[in-house]
Amino acid sequence: MNKIKIRALKYRGIFKPRVEQRDGVLERQIGRITIECIVGDIAAQKDCRAVVNAANAQLLPGGGVAGAIHIAAGPGLAVECRKWAPIKPGEAVMTSGHNLPNQYVIHCLGPIYGKDKPSDLLLANCYRNALKIMQENKIDSIAFPAISTGVFGYPKAEAARVAFKTIIDMVGQLDPDKRIRFVLHTKSDLEIHQKVLSELTA
Ligand code: ADP
């Protein structure tokens, strides 16, 4: 959604970003969709129906997010993943959550920065496809990690801009009262995401 569109929606009272900042948590209300940013562990989001895995192409356990998710889910997750692998950059597939506190895991393969091109479109596809799965399955809450910003090397502020822009563009296609959480690994990652989200919804 570009700035002119956002302005028009604001004028008509449809798009009214509401900002709340409490205990280092940024929360933005866009229409009836809530976007929040927190510091935490993606594998410990007890109050989200679905959690997103920054997966590898083979959907195998690995380091970073994929490691944390597979360890918490238990070996059944890797077994269920076999039927979907391999996936391509930008794609998303869903499994059950096994021993995770979440009913579902949505596995997204982000682009390797500088190798899988165009990186911004492929990264946007991850968020778009995950939100489509969320919508199709009537999932009310989802937790994302910062896809591609670990071993795949995507600069964090650039990745955050792609992620939030894609979500803001899709708000009109989502049922109301959905909660979209970004779980960042460090306080500095949280600050980067807060800054970008504030700029995009100012
Ligand atoms: P990718 O291969 O897509 O880059 P990574 O798992 O290497 O995925 O990292 C993605 C982002 O998630 C990085 O910013 C990393 O610091 C962060 N991260 C790593 N482990 C966790 C975790 N347990 N919870 C939340 N974020 C994490």
Silhouette: globular
What is the domain tally? 1
Spatial strand arrangement across the major sheet: 1-2-3-8-7-4-6-5
Rg, nearest Å? 16 Å
Helix fraction, binned, reads 25-40%
Q: What ranges have pLDDT less than 50 throughout 5 or more consecutive residues?
A: 4-14
Number of strands: 8
Note the main sheet: 8 strands, mixed
Structural class: alpha/beta
How far the N terminus sits from the C terminus, by CA atoms, comes to: 13 Å
* Strand percent estimate: 15-25%
> Which H/E pattern describes the elements?
HEEEEHHEEHEHEH
Q: Which CATH architecture is right?
A: 3-Layer(aba) Sandwich
Superfamily (CATH H level) name:
Leucine Aminopeptidase, subunit E, domain 1
Describe this entry's structure for a reader.
This protein is an alpha/beta fold and 202 residues long. The protein has a single domain (3-201), classed as Leucine Aminopeptidase, subunit E, domain 1. 36% of the residues lie in helices and 22% in strands. The chain has six helices and eight strands. The longest helix is centred in the middle third of the chain and has 18 residues, at 119-136. Mean pLDDT is 91; it is low at 4-14. Adenosine-5'-diphosphate binds next to helix 2. Adenosine-5'-diphosphate binds at residues 41-43, 54, 64-66, 68, 110, 145-152, 183, 185, 189.
Question: Which characteristics define this entry?
Answer:
202 residues, alpha/beta, Leucine Aminopeptidase, subunit E, domain 1, 6 helices, 36% helix, binds adenosine-5'-diphosphate
